[in-house]
Amino acid sequence: MKKRDSHPRSGVFPEAWDRGPDPETLVPGQAAKLAELREIAPPRAADYERASRGLAGAADPAELLERHSMILGRERGQVTLALGEVGKLPIEERKRTGRALNLIKRWLAEISEARRSQLEAAADSRSGPDVTLPGRRPWVGRPHVLAQIQSELLDLFHGLGYSVYESRESELDEYNFGKLNFAPDHPARDAHDTYFLSPGVVMRTHTSPGWVRAMEERRPPLRLVFPGRVYRAEQVDASHMDQFHQIDGLNVGPDVSMADLKGTLNTFARSIYGERVRTRLIPIYFPFVEPGCQMDVSCVICDGRGAVTENGSERRCSVCRGSGWLEVLGAGMVHPNVLRAVGYDPEQVTGFAFGMGLERIAMLRHGVPEIRLFLENDVRFLGQF
Ligand SMILES: [Zn+2]
Question: How crowded is residue 176: how many other Cβ atoms within 10 Å of its Cβ?
Fold first, then answer.
């Protein structure tokens, strides 16, 4: 008994490890193991007890690995080093110590492994959703930029007393052309080169066939806008697509005049391009109006000057190409032949009409250089509006 007490523990492990839990719950049979070690090599039993509590008390995988290396590491582990010294002992002590260290090595490895499994199981049970993480903002779509402009225009014209009339995209040749005063061989049809679905049926080249259908269905007065997609067999380039969007407007009644047209268009221009915008009407030919005109607005980029100042020097405005004006729509007084074609009497009623392209408005407003972007469905582009 006295001899054993004269062999104090070697003290190679931190004393604090003694406060670790009894490893009995991890690997049963510790009392028997300790008794056996005390029998063979009492100081090693004390080291074993401290090391076993150190492993069982490791707070997390990192601490466990650190302690495991300190005890059992292949290079610097204390048990490994002690085994390396066994050969220098006297023969009788060599046998006992060697046996004790090998038992210690095996038993501590069992405790280390059991604690590792326990820590991993605890981590798995905690790996549910982390409620402290900031939420992920869900991806929310929005109306297409052309849909935004269309709804803005419909709002504006609704305020001016216009209702929406939706018309078909596949249209009879007679409605797309004939009743709108296009003579069968008139060169104006060349600008409306179109897709034929079958003889006499085309994809509409403009939203104006809606006027004919609306006037045939209803009696004047009427104020309608006709939004929709139109098709032309165009060579596609940066400013031409074979499908695009228009809004036509039609106001027919007993006393509708060119002055009403001008007032309506000015209201439109100020609402869309800003209060400071100036407008002008230029005579132009469309088969379905007489007189026909094109409305220009003062350039929104250079404010109508035709030039912009950049780094102190003047250069030509590229948007209006130096003219100071932008062409934004076509308009005019409804041609008497069109009124007759739908059964109206041009002596009793008159009307004005206008039509504009949504892509052109969007390109001017947002500085979009390429009409094809509107149809490509690339959210990097569409997400900007
Ligand atoms: Zn300009």
Answer: 24
